[in-house]
Amino acid sequence: MGTSGSKARGLWPFASAAGGGGPEAAAAEQALVRPRGRVVPPFVFTRRGSMFYDEDGDLAHEFYEETIVTKNGQKRAKLRRVHKNLIPQGTVKLDTPRIHVDFPVILYEV
Fold it and tell me: Name one GO biological process term (predicted).
């Protein structure tokens, strides 16, 4: 009682050998169950870039422009953040592959 349908059919990826027999014992031999459909690798090779290109082709997280403000007859320079005419970096290839966040395995280091 209390088992879900996927555990009862032996599709639970963390099945233990202590379980009864049948499909659960067969699933206990493998750490992960093979998916029925398309095989998806557990690694991520690209990510979405967090930087932007400006009109000059410079790449940065933030862009600022210097503006001259006159206050009480004195000129002061202030930096104003630019939000317009920025192009997102797009997809960036990772140097080393990462494990996908939804991959159902717990990593443990002794």
Answer: inflammatory response
